[in-house]
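Hey, resending since the last one bounced:
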Amino acid sequence: MTALFALATSLLWGLADFGGGLLSRRTPALTVVVVSQCVAAAVLGVVVAATGAWSEAGPRLWFAVAAGAVGPVAMLSFYKALALGPMGVVSPLGSLGVAVPVGVGLLVGERPGLLQFAGVAVAVAGVVLAGGPQLRGAPVQRQAVALTLLAAFGFGAVMSLISEASTTVPGLFLALFVQRVTNIAVGGTALGVSVRRGGRALPQEGGLAAVRSALPALAFVGLADVAANGTYSIAAQHGPVTVAAVLASLYPVVTALAARGVLGERLRGIQTAGAGLALLGTVLLATG
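The structure tokens again:
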């Protein structure tokens, strides 16, 4: 069960990341986050009402609130990085967020093994190589790397927090709903501030009509993201967290394959090597 749900997490997160990054090339990233999460919250609200999950309310929901506060920052950073691209480099670097659950383990008394130390070295090398010549190039490329690392930390924090938010299936529905409502509150506030400062909430071409036409894709992104959070939580609760983390961290492969198949992206050799090292470092961190 752990392997099945963790692999489902990889597939869902990978497709959600690809869809969110692609939409962010035409629509402001904050709008993508807020609208997609509104759809997810609406669906979850119906599920919570239908299952009577409100009875599961308790102190653990604060973990969901915290995850909801961190999530929009991570998603916004990641979607902006994906919009700057290329996806095949950005997405693997985002998988370094698995270091956060490992770090939490250290804080509660676990001691790192040789594989974890090796994972740190390999992952850092992957970050440098994946940036490659771009780190010495245009500032926008350096910004993409920085945004991706910020997003990775946020994703890792969300993984740790949401796995602690519930111990039952109805409780998980409620926790995911609370997380999404918090996502909307934080993301909506940021969007409002951005608009007041002169930023855009709608695409330059098409405006509101363009957002309406993109609703199916936005709905898919939001629902795939919330489903991935749910499947990861189940995987982490029903088996070794290390196994769940390793398999769930394979989602960048899905994003990279989607980018290659749909967009025809081609990576430089040094970038491919760096992306591969980042994934290898992720696996070493999680399995050490």
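The two ends are 22 Å apart (CA to CA).

Sorry for the duplicate.
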